[in-house]
Structures are given as structure tokens and as C-alpha cells.
């Protein structure tokens, strides 16, 4: 059984027992969260697709940790103009473990 959820403006395919890094969620480490933005639920051949969300479906997850991702370097340059700009960015994330899917 798997589901497609929406959180942080992105969509993720999740299954029970899997871990996932999503955009930062306002939850404490070790707490349980419930995600109600379930776009699709599949259990074998039984597939439910929402318009836009599946009514009554939810995904339960546990917050494992908060952290910062790998550094992304942005470098801009204009040739012959003596313009160089270097910038870095590290995105915050929340790591969650999927405990169960209910449809």
C-alpha cells in the first residue's frame, strides 16, 4: 500500500515504514503528525484518486529530526565586465518516518 501526499508545496510517494525528508514542519522531535493532503491511495489494484484530495484519507508520521541539507553554490559571472558574485544556500528540512496510511 502506498500514497501520494502533498506537503511543503511538493508531492511525495510514501509507504508505511519509509523515511522522508520534507520541508520544515513546526513539530517537535518525536511527536506524531497527521498529513491530510493525500492526493492518491493505492492498495494493490484498488486505486483512489482525489479531486484534489481523497476524502477521509490521512497519513500518520513521526518526526525523527530537523536539519539542514547539503550546500548549494550559486555563481554568477558576466564576461569582460568584472562582475562576479558567489552565494551559498542550505535548505532546512524535517525528517519523518511514515507509520501508517488510512484511506
How do the helices and strands line up, and which of them pair or pack?
Layout: E1 2-7, E2 10-15, E3 19-23, E4 32-35, E5 38-43, E6 46-49, E7 58-68, E8 72-78, E9 83-89, E10 92-102
Antiparallel strand pairs: 1-2, 1-5, 3-10, 4-7, 5-6, 7-10, 8-9
Q: What string gives the helices and strands in order?
A: EEEEEEEEEE
| Subunit arrangement of the protein | single chain
Could you name the ranges where pLDDT drops below 50 across 5 or more consecutive residues? none
Strand order of the largest sheet: 2-1-5-6
Gross morphology is elongated
* Mean pLDDT, all residues: 96
Number-wise, the strands total: 10
Helix content: under 10%
Number of domain units: 1
C-alpha Rg, in Å?
19 Å
Function: This protein binds to 23S rRNA in the presence of protein L20.
Keywords: Ribonucleoprotein, Ribosomal protein, RNA-binding, rRNA-binding
Pfam family, one: Ribosomal_L21p
Subunit structure: Part of the 50S ribosomal subunit. Contacts protein L20.
Amino acid at each position: 500500500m502506498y500514497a501520494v501526499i502533498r506537503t511543503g508545496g511538493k508531492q511525495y510517494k510514501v509507504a508505511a515504514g519509509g523515511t522522508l525528508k520534507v520541508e520544515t514542519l513546526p513539530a517537535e522531535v518525536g511527536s506524531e503528525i497527521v498529513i491530510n493532503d493525500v492526493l492518491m491511495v493505492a492498495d494493490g489494484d484498488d486505486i483512489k484518486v482525489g479531486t484534489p484530495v481523497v476524502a477521509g484519507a490521512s497519513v500518520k508520521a513521526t518526526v525523527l529530526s530537523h536539519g539542514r541539507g547539503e550546500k548549494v553554490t550559486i555563481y554568477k559571472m558576466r564576461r569582460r565586465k568584472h562582475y562576479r558574485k558567489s552565494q551559498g544556500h542550505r535548505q532546512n528540512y524535517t525528517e519523518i518516518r511514515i507509520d501508517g496510511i488510512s484511506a
